[in-house]
Amino acid sequence: MSENDPHPDETNHHHDLYPYLVECAAEAARVARGVEATRLGDPTHCPDWDVRAMVNHWVLYTSHGLEHRARREQLPEELTARDFTADPDWARAYAVQLDRAVAAWADPAVWEGDIDLGTASMPAAELAPMIIKELAVHGWDVATATGQEYRVSDGAARLVLDVVEKHGALYRQYDGFADPVPVPDDAPVFERALAAGGRDPRQTAAGKVDQS
């Protein structure tokens, strides 16, 4: 996606955005498979969450939540309280559930109309990019905390940056983002997205700065 390409709210939502959902879900599944059980207690970029807490949030909202939103269903309370990492095979289960969720969004009709979030509603075409952002940003959180890399295309990175810039104030209102971190203007797009969301792309989850 170039600088001249339309922003998410100006696109044919399914045609233009669905490939990024497929891409980020596949990368999330790959990162999940690389999480060793011994790393679940390690810190993440979110100070109050270790890897286990981050993974549980990530799995809940980017796979189960993603499918339920497509089907216009509320998340069952049983799911919101589950420790997915208690299953030694959680990464495989996550990949399977991601496939179900991505398949649910394959229908262009799902991208039309509003989705009831319980306390409010939002256009499906606006909510879907926010969930793609969750896949990518929390995927990066998990990857960084467990010694991995989260790889994202320039197009997906541009989408994530658009979402972070558009909804940053809302995320900060609910402590989802910290204050923006300064990065060079010519930094890669995904690094700019992470920084705009309060994450230092040069810093490890343990607080060390990557000097490479």
How does this model look, in words?
- The protein is mainly α and 212 residues long.
- The protein has a single domain (8-196), classed as dinb family like domain (Four Helix Bundle (Hemerythrin (Met), subunit A)), CATH 1.20.120.
- It is 52% helix and 3% strand.
- It is built from 7 helices and 2 strands; from the N terminus they run H-H-H-H-E-E-H-H-H.
- It has a two-stranded antiparallel ribbon.
- The longest helix is centred in the middle third of the chain and has 22 residues, at 124-145.
- Residues 1-11 and 208-212 have low confidence and may be disordered.
List its salient traits:
two-stranded antiparallel ribbon; 52% helix; disordered N terminus; Four Helix Bundle (Hemerythrin (Met), subunit A); mainly alpha; 2 strands; 212 residues
- Biggest β-sheet, characterized? 2 strands, antiparallel
Shape: globular
> Rounded to an integer, what's the Rg over CA atoms?
16 Å
Q: What is the arithmetic mean of pLDDT?
A: 87
Briefly, what is this?
With 212 residues, the protein is mostly helical. Helix content is 52%, strand content 3%.
Topology (SSEs and partners):
Blueprint: H1 13-33, H2 51-70, H3 77-80, H4 90-104, E1 114-116, E2 121-123, H5 124-145, H6 154-173, H7 189-196
Antiparallel strand pairs: 1-2
Helix pairs in contact: 1-4, 1-5, 2-4, 2-5, 5-6, 6-7
